[in-house]
Amino acid sequence: MGQAFMQAWQEVCKKSAQPAKLLVPEGTYMSSPVIFQGPCLSSQPVIVEVKGTILANEDLSAYDEDFWFLFEKINGVILTGGGTFDGRGASAWKYNDGGSNFPTSIKMNDVDNGVVHDLCSVNSKFFHFHVTDSSNFTAYNLRITAPCDSPNTDGMHISSTCGVQVSNSVIATGDDCISVGPGVTNANIFGITCGPGHGISIGSLGKRDQEKDVCGVTFSNCTLNNTTNGVRIKTYASPIQIKASDITFQDITMNNVQNPIVIDQHYGSRKKKDSHVKISNVHYKNIRGTTPSNVPITLACSAAAPCDGIEFCDVNLDFKHPNTTFTACCTNAKTTFSGQNKVPICE
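RESULT FIELD:
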């Protein structure tokens, strides 16, 4: 069906100056990799309405690049319909050694004014969604699932994108529910139910040359259930000098979260080398819930670029084993505590 999808795209994108829709009706369809490429003739968004279930090819040799469905060079596209993209990733996960390049289920590259809503994505081989080099991206009412032990099945990874709103979605995967990578500015993510998985993350940052700053990212009104991490910022121990600033985690509920609040500037390094990513103006506000860990706050900041302006306000976390000491682990971090906090204070 891959060729049929691309032929239909030519009709709605390249040959119609009027508002047009590509409809995938109810039913089950097998598809090889698909490229939906613009620019399109119409000044109105092209609608891709998926009502059925699309199944990915299980054979990894069918994927020459890092995607299954690619939307590229488009100004205005709406992906919706209530249908399902099934990446059939179980056959691939056993080959994922951390260094291989597996296909993301749905990738948006160089897309302006893209909207994704009312869809399901299950069992991706790699990321479920990857949005990169884009602007004004909106997603809502998504249901994203993969087993808790499936590798690198991030629900949504966003990089090099300005103007992001992701909301009111349920994500349960084997990796980050949502991860915000380098070059993201002005992102508002709210109403996410996450778990199981690795929580919600800024990063990883500082891995590659030419990365750009992260600025103006807010996660709010999110619930994390039985996740490995809660809210995390992670940077590689590398000489790459970028900034991550003006980040807010607010109105977050954590239920049985192992590592609720983490800044890890030694990510991917066993030798604890210094990261040169500068983290500043990070706000943790009205975070509440439970954790099995007696170290609810870990701020492992870099000696080469210490964290500045780390604020805790009304952070209340209950430890499941009250007879054990509740502590914070903080290095190279300048912190302030205000409001009513029920967590250990960084000394």
